[in-house]
Amino acid sequence: MKRRQVIKNLSVLPVAGVALGSVSIAGCKVKEDPAPKRDFFKELGVVPRINAGGTMTYLSGSLMLPEVIEAINSTCHDFANMYELQDKAGEKIAAMLKCEAAMVTSGAAAALVVGTAACITGTDRDLIKSMPTPPGPQREVIIQKSHRYVFDQAVRSAGIKLVDVDDAAQMERSINKNTVMALFFNGAESWGAPPDKIKHEEFVAICKKHNIPSFIDAAADVPPVENLFKYQQIGFDLVTFSGGKMLMGPQSAGLLFGRKDLIEAAKLNYSPHECPIGRPMKVNKEEIFGMYAALKYYLEKDHEKEWQMWLDRIKHIAGKVEEIPTVKTETSIPTGPANVFPSMRISWDAEKIKITAQDISKALLDGTPSIIAGGRGNSLGIGVVLLRPEQVDIVATRVKEILQQAVS
User: Fold this and answer.
1) Is there a cis peptide before residue 134, judged by omega within 30 degrees of 0?
2) Which CATH number describes the domain made up of 303-405?
3) Of 396, 406, 368, 357, which Cα lies nearest the Cα of 52?
4) Rounded Cα–Cα distance for residues 15 and 22 (Å)
5) Measured between alpha carbons, how far is 134 from 297 in angstroms, rounded to an integer?
6) Distance (Å, rounded) from C-alpha 393 to C-alpha 387?
7) Distance between CA atoms of residues 94 and 117, nearest Å
8) Is 404 left (phi over 0), alpha (psi -120 to 50) or beta?
9) Measured between alpha carbons, how far is 395 from 391 in angstroms, rounded to an integer?
10) Of 7, 58, 113, 119, which has the fewest beta carbons less than 10 angstroms from its beta carbon?
């Protein structure tokens, strides 16, 4: 028998044994006992949490959809050319979002970095290599003063100087030959900032008048689903959304989409290219497939049915805790634009139930299972959108127990 045939036989025979769920010993098949399921939380000493809070990154965002996990598991066994995958996935995502071009990034923060870099470098390879200190004067990015936020550091990572403006007139005066982009933080008002002095449409109009790209950070701003299309329709050149919040894709993935020339430049500033500023922010193939699957599922699902499910969860929890005298509940729905989904607030007479929301939060956190929730005084906030179905009653029962124990 030739050596090649021996190797071929060796590589095929074990696979057949695995496929049958057995091993062959001296020609006899012996059934193997299934390996016990490993508890990685326990191995590492990490406490699993029930998230009755929100899609915070420190809490690992949201839980991935079964469709996303399937996409990851079904693609992790083969190799792919990452240039080809990014291009092909981007084409499909752009078609779904009805925009010119798109790409998957390692979260919305990475999209801010490579999107800004794209506005500086275009496709100039020398400029791409020089980032974040390209030759010449420092580039500038316009931003409303009320929109300064923790994630503007991602934009500054591209070596730019942020120029704060108060209103449209100052924005116009601030634009000069060094201006490469204008950034709009969509969630500023939701984060407690005063109302925008420059609204979306006026902001875009000024950018187009002066031929500078406009970039909107809308990371946490679905639902509603319409937001995925709204800002590009207004005219923003670049848009980013997080993949690991309510899209429920991989926590470390995000979307950057908009003008084709800028997306192509962003890809040149990104991995798998070896030298650019975005190389340390690489996204793996499984995350790209997973992000594609998440977006497809999100666009096709019944959003009204999901919204009603969230309201039903609130009704169920309310029905339990309101059995305690003086306990009241209300449904809270933010006006937008960020985190627009229903949650609930539970309040009580502090003279009758002698416990604070902070005390309840600590009791929930320290209990088994550990539950994340928050609040102040006699008002406890409960988020329902990230709960698994079986966790709704667990949260309701636990909160009721803690309140009941504090009744004077």
Assistant:
1) no
2) 3.90.1150.110
3) 396
4) 10
5) 41
6) 10
7) 21
8) alpha
9) 6
10) 58
The CATH code of domain 79-300 reads 3.40.640.10
CA angle in degrees (0–180, nearest 5) for 264-116-151: 130
Nearest by Cα to 120 from 157, 158, 152: 158
Output the six-digit token pair for 53: 């809070």
Distance, in Å, from the CA atom of 110 to the CA atom of 256, rounded to the nearest integer, reads 9
pLDDT tens, per residue, the chain with 408 residues: 443 343 334 333 333 333 334 443 344 454 566 777 899 999 999 999 999 999 999 999 999 999 999 999 999 999 999 999 999 999 999 999 999 999 999 999 999 999 999 999 999 999 999 999 999 999 999 999 999 999 999 999 999 999 999 999 999 999 999 999 999 999 999 888 999 999 999 999 999 999 999 999 999 999 999 999 999 999 999 999 999 999 999 999 999 999 999 999 999 999 999 999 999 999 999 999 999 999 999 999 999 999 999 999 999 999 999 999 999 999 999 888 888 999 999 999 999 999 999 999 999 999 999 999 999 999 999 999 999 999 999 999 999 999 999 998
Judged by DSSP in three states, 9 sits in helix
Query: What are the residue boundaries of the structural domains of the chain, listed by start?
Result: 1-34, 79-300, 303-405
3-state SS, residue 163: strand
Rounded Cα gap, residues 323 and 4, in angstroms: 75
Whether the CB-CB separation of 373 and 382 falls below 8 Å is answered with yes
Nearest to residue 386, comparing CAs of 401, 373, 405? 373
DSSP H or E run through 345: strand 343-347
Identify whether 337 is preceded by a cis peptide bond (ω within 30 of 0): yes
**Residue found under tokens 């801010």:** 112
Structural tokens at position 378: 């006699």
142: phi then psi, degrees, rounded to nearest 5: -80, 140
Q: Which of 118, 113, 117, 121 is nearest to 101 (CA)?
A: 118
Contact 190, 336 (CB under 8 A): yes
- Name which of 314, 351, 354 is nearest 331 in CA terms: 314
The backbone torsions φ and ψ at residue 154, rounded to the nearest 5 degrees and listed phi first, read: -65, -40
Look at the block and give the residue holding tokens 């709704």: 392
